[in-house]
Amino acid sequence: MTMSDEGNEPAVVQLSDVRKEYGDAVALDGISLRIRAGEAVAVMGPSGSGKSTLLNVIAGLDRPTSGSVVVHGDDLGRLDEKGLALFRRRRIGMIFQFFNLIDDLPALDNVALAAQLAGVAAPHARRRALELLDELGVAGRRNTYPAQLSGGERQRVAVARALMNRPALLLADEPTGALDSRVGEQVMDLLLDLNQIGQTLLMVTHDERLATRCASRVIEIVDGRVARERTLERA
Amino acid sequence: MSAVWLAARAAVRRRRLQTAVVGIVVGVCTTMTVVAVGLLAVSSGPFDRAYAQQRGAHLSVTYDRAKVTDAQLTSAAAWSGVEAVAGPFSQATVELGAADRPRGMPLTVAGRADPAGPVDRLNLWNGRWATAPGEIVMNENPAGPGFRARIGDEFTTPDGVTLTVVGRAYSMSRSADAWVTPGQIAALNPSATQLLYRFAEAGTTSAMRAGEAEVTRGLTGARLGSTSYLVLREEAAREAATYVTFLIAFGVLGLAVAILIVGNVVSGAVVAGFRHIGVLKALGFTPTQVLAVYLTMVSVPAVAGCALGTALGNVLARPLLSQAFRNLGAEGIGVPLWVSVAVALGVPLTVALSAFVPAMRARRLPAAEAISAGSAPQSGGGLRVQRWLSGTRLPRAVSLGLGLPFARPARSALTMAAVVLGVTSVTLAIGLADSLTRYQRAEARSGAVQVEAFPAGGPDAGSAGDEALLRAAPGTRYLLGSLDLPVRQIGNTDQTMLRLYKGDTAALGQRVLDGRWPSAVGEVAVAKRFLVQRGLSIGDSFAIEAGEGVTRVRVVGMVLFNETETIIADWSTAALVVPEAFPDRFEIQLTGGTDPRAYMDALRGSGLMAVPPEGAEQFVVIVLVTVTLLTLMLAVVAALGVFNTAVLSTRERRRDLGMLKSIGMTPGQVVVMVVTSMAVLGALGGLLGIPIGVAVHRVVLPAMADAAQVGFPSAFLDVYEVPTLALLAVAGVAIAAVGALMPARSAARLTIAEVLHNE
């Protein structure tokens, strides 16, 4: 599927001619992209191709040099730093390769933190966090600190945190990259389940198995450009 | 170049900010230490040097020449403990008059053949010695504030003897106010004989007492008075001692802060540099070399800061020392070299010692553990606190900030200790300033005395009508008239003033610190220093020579008073000395709503000159300025400590901060979190620092008062009121918040993408 054959379903992500330069280096070179609600899109490509930069500009973690990025109706180019923070808080959930949990907080508080920052009272935030941990199968580890969790458990906690504010878009940066194959499979199942209940998903990965298993569309990026797009039939 | 130096130099360059913090903190604290120790070291030095040079008298005793002969005195002075003796010199009290000074001070004049001798070798610094009748040499300090006479001036005694000034000499022993030839003194009706002694043992009061007892054995009935050089020495060092007391307090605080901050910087560098330590060890650095790298890393800025601080301390100490010893003519006096050397060596050593403990941690750290650092699980009370905080109703940025200090309790404790000392300094400074201001206002009777008035014709132009005129003037509420009369305490060469008061003493008189206000004939009140320096107590009597008669007065009170050579008495005492006199100075308090300027204008043309009261005393102003400067320095140092901790904490938590921003923490929330994390230390520091500061104030101020021999009412120590304490509590938070603000803003600007993807 390309931008030309997009349907009438509302777009969660709309990129138009996005370019990102770091000094003389061009990370993104005029990328246009549309992701519809409920889609699961995998971005693949060799190292240094611009995958992570693409994820960062969509998440509002980085600003493009030119072009526009609209996510769930928010034109990120029009938002200041505080606006971007509020955008991330309300619209985006992120999962990282190395989990990025706060070592000083137990699992439950790591998850509840996202809602508490949005002003949700601690008891409500904790209740919701516990529900999510329960759904993801790690409720029993709610009082455990990140350093004492296994890699899979950490990533489940990270996923729970990403889902805490019911984001319009879940972004995953190499979500299985730091996990062994068995745990990686579990995380793949989790992402698939989330997408099947309607969660829009954009993941950056090197892992062909993850892409083919979880994504409905794969975008390949080379030298900052979309080299190829393919639609997949999921098993 | 050795590997240790190479690695240490790289570490210094990598940690520019912490290097600068260590350098500045050590520099500031070294400056304070040099000034404090320098002042302490020289507080008696100039006096001792000058006194030894003059072979000043350890003891000067005045005897009644009607009761003892010169031969008896010479015989008694033959005691084995006497190293040298000068005299007997005949002594007369003479009121010298001049054409422009009809009523002069009574001077102690001694008959001496020459200025040299085994004791009290006079510094004849201008003119020549008196060699003929009619010549007089005046005792003048060449560095003194003003001179009484010039060469060629002529004075006349009440008996009509004319004396011409032929020289000016200086006696540190203060053996006389002037000297004439032995032949001339006989014509001045000498009433006393003075003997000047140097003892083999004279270092202590008890040695001096023992010596005096020996040389006056059998002569006590003839002894009129004596002066110990210890009193002169103490007086010379008095002003310096006052500075020293609070400078030492601030110096100790400064050094303590420096040690804490340096310890904090190094432990922070060790924690932040775990991986670096691991790499060093993997490269083949021995544990001792790693230790050396960390000590060198701190010593480089410490040595630089110390060198600059020592130089700056020397520059700053010079005007302070000159001010403190100006009475000795010690202009240009500096900090002794040994102080600079000791501080320049001692401070870096202290810094290195404070760095030693955390550096030892780096030394002990196993290489494998160091390289894999960062994933160690945490546990303990700190995490329980964070857990509890996360459940409170506080905004999450605030509760996260409140919990951060518990993640690194040791570092937090060091930072808090720096804040505690900072708040202690501010508390002490505010207390000192308030107490000294209260003292100054009480001494000057600020608020009480609003206008001063004098007879326009000069000191002797007062009349009975002056008082009545002022009483009747519209706006006069209270009126206190006074008259100063030069007198001489028998047995003491210091010039003394008898101040007679008439009027509303209860409203306008000096504050009575002990005893009571003099109300009857012959009763006097004096300042504490008068009592201390003359060895008197309330209830004691002494004789004063005023005019042509000798009068005995009794001390009935000690008053808050800076004029230490003045005796206060009720007007009824005037009957003993000047029955026909009138007040020549009036102090006035006005009725409410009366404009002092209008009141003074209204007195024009009445024969009285009205002026506003004098301003604050210079010394108090100097102390206040110095205290303020030192406080600012320490507050800056404490804020630098917080700044350093906030920077370390922010750097360590870059990943966490990036993550928090990625899940929607706004830049404002990041600032709130970081500032809160330090403000909580500031608040706790304030709560601890305030009582410590109050306690130090209660120790330092009475010590300063003792050093200055000033009567200080304990009520002036009660300066900390609720608004002041509230302000001080805010001081801790302010110090911490200011220190944390810059790192917080830097944290808020972190680029999330860079932070989260540089694993």
UniProtKB/TrEMBL annotation, chain B:
<keyword id="KW-1133">Transmembrane helix</keyword>
<feature type="domain" description="ABC3 transporter permease C-terminal">
    <location>
        <begin position="249"/>
        <end position="366"/>
    </location>
</feature>
<dbReference type="InterPro" id="IPR003838">
    <property type="entry name" value="ABC3_permease_C"/>
</dbReference>
<protein>
    <submittedName>
        <fullName>Permease</fullName>
    </submittedName>
</protein>
<feature type="transmembrane region" description="Helical">
    <location>
        <begin position="413"/>
        <end position="433"/>
    </location>
</feature>
<feature type="transmembrane region" description="Helical">
    <location>
        <begin position="722"/>
        <end position="742"/>
    </location>
</feature>
<dbReference type="Pfam" id="PF02687">
    <property type="entry name" value="FtsX"/>
</dbReference>
<dbReference type="Pfam" id="PF12704">
    <property type="entry name" value="MacB_PCD"/>
</dbReference>
<feature type="domain" description="ABC3 transporter permease C-terminal">
    <location>
        <begin position="630"/>
        <end position="745"/>
    </location>
</feature>
<feature type="domain" description="MacB-like periplasmic core">
    <location>
        <begin position="412"/>
        <end position="604"/>
    </location>
</feature>
<dbReference type="InterPro" id="IPR025857">
    <property type="entry name" value="MacB_PCD"/>
</dbReference>
<dbReference type="InterPro" id="IPR050250">
    <property type="entry name" value="Macrolide_Exporter_MacB"/>
</dbReference>
<feature type="transmembrane region" description="Helical">
    <location>
        <begin position="291"/>
        <end position="317"/>
    </location>
</feature>
<comment type="similarity">
    <text>Belongs to the ABC-4 integral membrane protein family.</text>
</comment>
<feature type="transmembrane region" description="Helical">
    <location>
        <begin position="20"/>
        <end position="42"/>
    </location>
</feature>
<feature type="transmembrane region" description="Helical">
    <location>
        <begin position="243"/>
        <end position="271"/>
    </location>
</feature>
<feature type="transmembrane region" description="Helical">
    <location>
        <begin position="670"/>
        <end position="694"/>
    </location>
</feature>
<feature type="transmembrane region" description="Helical">
    <location>
        <begin position="619"/>
        <end position="649"/>
    </location>
</feature>
<feature type="transmembrane region" description="Helical">
    <location>
        <begin position="337"/>
        <end position="357"/>
    </location>
</feature>
<keyword id="KW-0472">Membrane</keyword>
<dbReference type="GO" id="GO:0022857">
    <property type="term" value="F:transmembrane transporter activity"/>
</dbReference>
<keyword id="KW-1003">Cell membrane</keyword>
<dbReference type="GO" id="GO:0005886">
    <property type="term" value="C:plasma membrane"/>
</dbReference>
<keyword id="KW-0812">Transmembrane</keyword>
